[in-house]
Amino acid sequence: MRLRKLALLLAVVGLVCLPAPVYLPALAEATSPPPQTSQSYRAETVSLANQSDVETIVSRHGRTVSISVHQVSHRYSAGGYRAPNETRETLAAAMRNGTARTAAAGARADLQAIARNNTYVHDAYGERQQYYRFSVEENGSVVTARNATLQRVANATVERGAYRYENLSPEARETVDRILRNSSDEDFGYRPRVNDAFVDRLPALVEKDGTLHSITVYGHVDDFGFGAALVVGLGVAGVGAVLILVGGVLYAVAWWRE
């Protein structure tokens, strides 16, 4: 009788363990805090008075006021342009010649939309890292492009794209402060939670107490939380299967003895 009870107990425990690959990952997800971002961030002090910092500001954050012609494509814009080929060619022609024209209605609409959101254009993969201030006239039919210095682009980037620390919410300030505190040479940066304030605006320029900070991605981290729970669940399920098998054998032995 005792052997049968032991066999039944082992079988019951085994049955409980079998669905572990399903409930353990769900339990881990339900009880764990919001996941961290896959990137860690660090801040670097920069100044518009330093030429190397000017280049850093433009290369890291210039996208707030400029666009690279390679972005005007189906591949990079996910269908955000009506006539990406014609639009890109018109921009490139203006950069080469100073002025370019297009008669395509889709390109005209694209160029006007680009001009509303950007002041400068450049070619990130071109031979020359030259920026151009561009304008669109005659309902998008005419594009003009004039050489612009990196200093002007950097000035515009800071003026329009930098966040003023004092204007941020308390929660956003805390996120920024944590990044600043973990940005020394000995630190590996700060890895915020995905739901932390200001995370959706990173990388970013932040001006605090008159000092400009360039916050950028310092490293990438792979999380294995859910996968680890699944692996553990599979292991528990394997143990459950063994327990059921042992319980069955013991029950058969008990039945044979009786």
Q: Could you describe the 3D structure shown?
A:
With 258 residues, the chain is α+β, with helices and mostly antiparallel strands. It folds into 2 domains: 1-33 and 232-257; 39-220, no CATH class. The chain has 9 helices and 9 strands. Helix 5 packs across helix 6 (105-117). It is globular and about 80 Å long. The chain crosses the membrane at residues 224-253. Keywords: Membrane, Transmembrane, Transmembrane helix.
Number of domains: 2
Across the major sheet, the strand order is 2-4-5-6-3
- Which stretches are poorly predicted, pLDDT < 50 over at least 5 residues? none
How large is the radius of gyration?
A: 30 Å
Share in helix: 40-55%
Q: Tally of extended strands? A: 9
Protein structure class: alpha+beta
Distance between the ends: 9 Å
Average residue-wise pLDDT: 82
Task: Give the count of helical stretches.
Answer: 9
- Shape from CA axes? globular
Beta-strand residue fraction: 15-25%
How do the helices and strands follow one another from N- to C-terminus? HHEHEHHEHEEEHEHEEH
Major sheet attributes: 5 strands, mixed
